[in-house]
């Protein structure tokens, strides 16, 4: 059985009312009708499978240029999520703290890694004393802080992009401003 088929079976469990924390490797294997050795041939544990699946779900997001993603993070992510199966996973797991934290933390780490690479490849104005990873973490955390802050407000995505750029625009390479 392929990695993608194992992920699809796990994804189906995750979006049909099963909380991440309640799904076991045994349950995944039973759903798929495979022996646990087939699972462990591809994955160390269900977290590694979950991260693999998130990478698949985020693949198209990371095809968008980093300059665009860091210039308009809210507008672009909203557009991405409306067409992505990731939104189904987020919605299905929103009442499972463990699943929600895993989605958030995995997405953040991938965005930070990507942001660091983007800054290294495109920055000409950053002070040499600042670490690229620190700046990337600041950019990404600001996105998540604004997201949490606006949950009960009625701002347009373009307005959130504007707030974001006011807070961290000076950290972005010139091409993104």
Automatic annotation (TrEMBL):
Keyword Kinase: no
A Pfam family that the UniProt record links to this protein: TetR_N
Keywords assigned by UniProt, alphabetized: DNA-binding
Keyword DNA-binding: yes
Boundaries of every HTH tetR-type domain copy: 20-51
MF terms in GO: DNA binding
Domain of life: Bacteria
Protein name, per record: TetR/AcrR family transcriptional regulator
Organism: Vagococcus intermedius
Organism phylogeny: Bacteria, Bacillati, Bacillota, Bacilli, Lactobacillales
């Amino acid at each position: 059985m392929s990695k993608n088929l194992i992920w699809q079976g796990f994804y189906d469990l995750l979006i049909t009312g099963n909380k991440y924390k309640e799904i076991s490797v045994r349950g995944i294997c039973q759903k798929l009708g495979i022996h646990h050795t087939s699972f462990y041939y591809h994955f160390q544990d269900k977290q590694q499978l979950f991260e693999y699946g998130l990478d698949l779900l985020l693949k198209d997001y990371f095809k968008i240029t980093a300059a665009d993603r860091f210039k308009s993070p809210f507008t672009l992510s909203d557009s991405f999520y409306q067409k992505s199966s990731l939104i189904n996973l987020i919605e299905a797991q929103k009442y499972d703290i463990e699943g929600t934290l895993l989605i958030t933390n995995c997405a953040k780490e991938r965005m930070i890694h990507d942001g660091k690479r983007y800054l290294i490849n495109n920055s000409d104005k950053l002070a040499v004393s600042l670490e690229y990873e620190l700046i990337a973490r600041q950019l990404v955390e600001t996105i998540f802080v604004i997201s949490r802050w606006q949950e009960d407000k009625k701002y347009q995505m373009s307005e959130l992009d504007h707030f974001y750029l006011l807070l961290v625009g000076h950290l972005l390479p010139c091409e993104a401003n």
